Amino acid sequence: MVFWLRKNVAEKAGDEPVAEKVANEAEGFYRSGKMHCAEAVLAAVKNEFLPEAGDELVHLASGFGGGSGAGCICGAVAGGTMAIGLVVKDRKEAAALTKELHHWFKEQYRVTCCKALTANGKKRCVEFTASTAGKVAEMLQQRK
C-alpha cells in the first residue's frame, strides 16, 4: 500500500476517507523519523478520534517500536491496540476489536511478530504502519 503517494490526489479532491486520512498521517509520522510504528499509529488515530487527548500520551507507545525491543509483537499492531483502548471505553468491545485487528493483520501479513516481518529489513514497516492505522480508523468509524 502506498498511501504516501496517493495523499496529494485525495487532498485535491477534498474527499479523503477517514481511514485513508489516518493512514496517510501515520505514514507521514513514520517517514518523518520522529516516530516509530507504534507511536505513529497511536498518534494518527488519536488525532482523528480523540484530538482533545494530549499529545504526551503518544509517549506511552515509545517502548513498543521494533517489537518492544525484543522483536515480538509488531509495533504497529501494539500502537493500534493502544489506540483502540484509548477510544473504546468498554473493555469487552475493545478486546473484540483488538482480536479483529490481530486477525486482520495476520490475514494481510501472515504473522504479527516483528522479527518475522522484518527478517529481510524494515523497508515494509512504513506499509505496516499506514495500513494498520487505516484499519484501526475503519474499525472505529464503523462502530459509531
From TrEMBL:
It holds the Pfam family C_GCAxxG_C_C. InterPro entries: CGCAxxGCC_motif. NCBIfam families: C_GCAxxG_C_C. This is C-GCAxxG-C-C family protein.
